[in-house]
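Task: fold both queries, return tokens.
Query 1:
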Amino acid sequence: MKPLSHLTVVDMTVNLPGPFCSEILADLGARVIKVEPPGGDPLRHSPHMWASLNRGKESITLNLKSTTGRQILQDLIAKADIFLEGSRPGVAKRLGADYTTLATINPDLVYCSISGFGQDGPWTNRPAHDINYLALSGYLSTQSTIEGNPAPPPILISDLASGLYSTIAILAAITSRQANGKGTFIDLSMTDSALSLLGLEIAKSSDHSISDQKPNVSYIPHYGVFPCSDGKWMTLGIVHEDHFWDRLCNITEINDLSGLDFDQRLDRADEIKERLHKLFITKTSEEWEQLLYNADIPAAAVLDIWEVLKSDHFKHRGSFVNIDLYRHVILPFNFSNASVSPEPKISTTGENTKTIITNLGYTSEEFELFTQADAFGSLDKGD
């Protein structure tokens, strides 16, 4: 039995943060009923993203602009533990899916609302996407090109962080409910999620003796990425540790720098960084990988996705599974007494609508009446 097999989640979110959260809950065993608008989640237009974020979920389409569609949602909520929504503040209320309405139906409900800027504040109704949240949180200012221009990261940092924080908040609320018997409302801001990743930078800003607000490790000359002779790159991860630094010096041509402590190395940062660039370009990444691994120095070659897929480490860890046409990354942890492998199923739009309606206690005749009342929009023929 999986850890969360006793929980039912109704997920009304689209795109990335909410589905990422409910995917984690699904992998942990929760029953996730994805409520899609007629026509489906817009993310279905990107099949690989859809598959990655929505495995192991049931799908029902509901037209929440119809009275019958709203009633069916409320029937689902009456039997649910968790509800996820990701609209701008005010939208859920217009659809009859706000916390006040749903908590009246199910006082035990854990309701998580994911929005760009939270439920209140000057930016509450501002339109935005991941890059805007990163900009307004200060995160983007810490990422720059060689020319010093802000550089958008290749992955959706705020979206993914929001999904993770939503999962943490939900599980905390479920634990709290077990203790006090009460449901709760979770107000999660995607901009705040990005800001939370800058905790070290914010703490650094409190020290008025530090005038340079560069990211915490960028000033360390032996913590970075260095080109090799084969056109590939090596990462060197020495921070303050003198023993790692001395080992590197003693097995290479920079042994004259051995014995420098961390402060002395910072004082000679430009010189050391230049020496390291000249050093790493003398060997291939494979040669450096072997040499530094054998010397027990924190270093690693930069792998591309195809190299990651062939990695013996990830094969041993069982990090990938194939579901339908796509390769999936599983949760990065294991339980000694339970499985967290994803369910090998990806639902089509509304595929489980009739089954879900039947499980709510409605008859086939009532289902047909709901269909005529446009409660579901356009249904897939799979169910």
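Query 1 returned. Query 2:
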Amino acid sequence: MKLKMRGSMKMKSDRASSKLALTLLLSTGCILAGVPIAASDGRAKSDECAYYDAPARCTESERNARRKSFGLPKLEKIQRQTMRGGKASELIVATVKVKRRGGLALVMQRDRDGIPIVEIHSMPADSRPADYKPIKAVIPEATWASALSKGNALDLVYATEEVLVCGANFSVEIVDKEGNVRAPVGDSCGGEPRGVYFNFLAEATLEQLPHCKALAPLGSDWPPGKLAACFELRGNKVAAAELYNLFHAFEDRPFWETHDGWTDPSDILPLLDDEISFSWPGIPLIEDAEMVANFWTGGWLAPVKFEAGPILAGPDGIAHVGGRVVFTGSSNRGVDRQPSGTFASTWKRGVDGKFRMRRFDYLAQPFRSAELFRNANERIR
């Protein structure tokens, strides 16, 4: 399966020139990707590490730091957590970091009962909400065996004739029962083996999470994207996934970004209940779906950014989505962001089985929101 990533571009480069530049960097005692280099006496030693060296010890510091960003400890500690009778399971830790969109870590091993499991970690550890929990799933024995086989078959070093700059990069660590580590290195993105392998692990994980597999973030079918989106589902996750897809059914933006004045009201109207109640400071309560659609898309809310949180769906056909309201505007200092309150929305499943917004409330002190709204619109003009 082809790996799909935004922001990828390729720049042709002469291999000899790359090697020359690398030699110059090494000679000045620089450190590349956390790899120790340059002996004090200037002579090469057999235990030194150079760029793209295969021994796992050469990238240990870098790999530990990458795992830590997902809240994961050192490999030996992860293995100890599931030891049975003093014996460790094989372990797979694979990560992807996506530019401007956080990242994802997959941890596969046998649990204390000997059952193969996968644990999914999303978002950098320092920005997780208070109720964050990793997603866990049992994986079939055949999938576990295939994951180990494919991982151990990866070349330890992968290099191309091109310099690749892209929006995602990958890491793979495979530990056997004795604690020996395989950590392939090399050029990232562009269909490189670690990326293809991560895609395989993500697809295998999605097979065990059908509500996550059904997700379509802005029409994307990229497996890691679906796993990341799965963290937005709470309560009845099948119903939450249905509402998630409704929010992302637009061509180029999710529902919470359709208030910028460029969306036609007719695109929003089907998502609004006939008995909707919509409150916003400074205007009368709106209880007409058409009026809400016109207000939402008319550009009045252009200075506002809705930072929506998880989707909490109940068993009764009711779902709740809330989040922060942030006013944005341009100034001589760049883009100003001023949090001004929160919003809460209620969505109800109709007799036709489709979710629609039944209630929307902006929760903020009226004088504060009115001041921000006025200032933001003045800057726009």
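Both queries returned. Flag for query 2: Residues 366-380 form the longest helix (15 residues).
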